[in-house]
Design brief:
It contains nine helices and 15 strands. The protein has about 300 residues and is of the alpha/beta class.
Length: about 300
């Protein structure tokens, strides 16, 4: 007869196996095709953007008084005013995510609003399990197991201090005197150091070596350049920017049949919300065309 101890050990073993499967499954749910997610953690005062994968994490810290160019054409505002701006602009929390996307020219996959303080020296104990989690780009929503995995991963990552960069300590931020004589700390992404841009390169995309032609169909100045910067910061190449008079509503990604199932196409589709068009006229050999419409334009530029 099997003893109670043996039965107990068997139950424990099965629980571990099931638990491991849940963790592995949930990790996939919060991941992207490249295994990387960019996480924005915001307190309503300051913020940190984390490039997170299974092996490493790197972070940019934004103090409360740093002015950034915000989304939807709202202008430059300090980080601690983004919650109020989100209430006044369409999109709510999506406005906050999009503001950091526009400034950094990188995709924000997951947004977390937390009541905990953010330290520029450590990411330990960064979020609470009861904090507000939302995912914009990921194909599956943040289920409870996925949320638990992300919370667990964020709170146990050991990030070397040198991998947590305060943007005010870089030449990205400078003191600017406004017309009324008030001095502000203004961030300009054009001066973002190359080292920081490399935080967000996704290795599988760099390995596939895709080349993109970016078309702006909305007529909004700067739209194709922003998308181009995002694509390059993710690890792809852009060979041409061009305006088109089509004025399409949504984003479409035109690729050859043989390139349609690649990691790059999956990730770019996820980030920009594109519809994939298998185009027989596409040249192939890892060359794709992305058409940006008014949806992306309104989110980033307000028009």
């Amino acid at each position: 007869m099997i003893s109670k101890i043996a039965i107990g050990l068997l139950v424990l073993l099965l629980s571990i196996i099931v638990g491991t499967r849940l963790v592995n499954t949930s990790l996939l749910r919060v991941s992207s095709p490249t295994g990387r997610v960019n996480v924005l953690v915001y307190t309503g005062t300051d913020a940190v953007v984390i490039a997170l994968d299974k092996t490493a994490a790197r972070a940019l810290y934004f103090p409360s008084d740093v002015y950034i160019e915000t989304a939807q054409g709202a202008g430059k505002y300090p980080v601690n005013k983004l919650t109020k701006l989100a209430e006044l602009n369409e999109g709510g929390d999506r406005f906050i995510e999009a503001s950091f996307e526009r400034f950094l020219a990188v995709p924000i996959d997951i947004y977390i609003f937390t009541s905990r303080e953010i330290s520029p020296d450590s990411l330990s104990g960064l979020v609470k399990f009861k904090d507000t989690f939302s995912s914009k780009d990921l194909k599956t929503s943040l289920t409870r197991p996925a949320k638990f995995q992300l919370w667990w991963q964020l709170n146990r990552i050991n990030v070397p201090k040198e991998n947590i960069i305060d943007v005010t300590k870089t030449r990205t931020v400078s003191t600017v005197e406004q017309a009324d004589g008030v001095e502000i700390n203004e961030a300009d992404a054009r001066f973002l150091p190359v080292k920081l841009q490399q935080y967000f390169i996704e290795i599988p995309l760099a390995q596939e070596q895709f080349k993109f032609v970016v078309y702006n169909t909305s007529g909004t100045p700067g739209l194709a350049r922003l998308a181009s910067n995002m694509l390059e910061n993710m690890g792809t190449d852009v060979i041409l920017l061009e305006n088109k008079s089509d004025n399409t509503a949504d984003c479409t990604l035109h690729v050859s049949e043989e390139d349609a199932e690649t990691i790059t196409v999956a990730r770019v589709t996820q980030v920009f919300g594109c519809e994939v068009i298998r185009d027989s006229s596409s040249p192939g050999d890892k060359v794709a065309s992305i058409y940006l419409g008014e949806q992306f334009s309104k989110l980033m530029f307000g028009r």
